[in-house]
Write a structure and sequence with these properties.
Helix content: 40-55%
CATH superfamily: NADP-dependent oxidoreductase domain
Strand content: 5-15%
CATH architecture: Alpha-Beta Barrel
Amino acid sequence: MNNETKTNGDPVERGVGRRKFLGVTIGGGAAILAGGSSVLFSTASNAAASAGADSVFKLGGDLPVNRLGFGAMRITGDGIWGWPPNRDEALKVLRRAVELGVDLIDTADAYGPETSELLIAEALHPYPKGLVIATKGGLTRPGPGQWVPNGRPEYLTQCVEKSLKRLRLDRIDLYQLHRVDSKVPMEESLGAIKKMQEAGKIRHVGLSEVGPEEIVRARKVLPIVSVQNQYNVDNRRWDKALAYCEKEGLGFMPWSPVGGGRSLRSGALEAVAKSHGASVYQVAIAWLLARSPVMLPIPGTSSVTHLEENVASGKLQLTPAELKSLDAAS
């Protein structure tokens, strides 16, 4: 899961105006629109690479992604249900994300359900080289705002097949078990995913909402390359899971990276945001990136403007003193 950033802040670096700050991040893509998505993607990726090796993480040791990704939950309708009110805007958000150098898009069959995956394919297929689409299965949607786990092996096998079809893929680069079903042994759920991996339909496997003990259990069944847990500057519940991922070199994808439906409010966060002329949401994303080298934030939005502001957060450099104040504020 992920969240929509609702921000009206003016993102700047110290001494740099909002327009220049955003322009550094987005100008290159806009300048070469005529070159097509593959050219845009290549140029943005090269720009990210030149920013430093710490801007890239290799999932499973062999699948490089820029550390700031995009979560595609909020491109659906209200309650993460049905089609978005503005379908054209949703398609623009996805295309703009790629133009800005985002090469990790996270989705799930439960988002809509199905509509997020369908929109991704509509907007971006044929996919530019290097674009990683991560999806998930194992949560069912009885209705808007409702989420019910289903980890039965036969159901998960069906989930993989249907996601492949909706996304127009022969292989899913990262497939994640959306939730561990308390009614089904994890080993059975992951056994089905392992069979699909052995069949060449999945490249890498991840988990969601799990602690270190569950990750250890899962790794006895098959290799795990990532963990997607709720985590942000105000919610450190999964610190131990993050520490495990750091130790083992697994990617940690925080969903709800800027607080989800509740506002981020702390004196320290607001003070840091004010000093940079940025929003608290941009500071929250910058804090995540600085928090750990395995952190892969996936902020989501249904707005191109908010997307551009989110991506600009990757340029925001927090000082050691600011990081210390934010660490202490939780």
